[in-house]
Design a protein that fits this description.
The protein is built from one helix and two strands; from the N terminus they run ββα. With 31 residues, the chain is of the alpha+beta class. It has a two-stranded antiparallel ribbon with strand order 1-2.
C-alpha cells in the first residue's frame, strides 16, 4: 500500500500480507 505524503512529492510504502492492518498503518503514519 502506498500513502502519498501531504505535499504529494513522495509516497510512504507499507508492505503487509494482512489488509486489515491498513487502519493501524494510517494511525502510525499520522501520529
Amino acid at each position: 500500500m502506498n500513502y502519498m505524503l501531504e505535499d504529494g512529492s513522495r509516497a510512504l510504502e507499507v508492505a503487509t500480507t494482512r489488509p486489515e492492518t491498513m487502519f493501524g498503518d494510517v494511525a502510525v503514519a499520522v501520529n
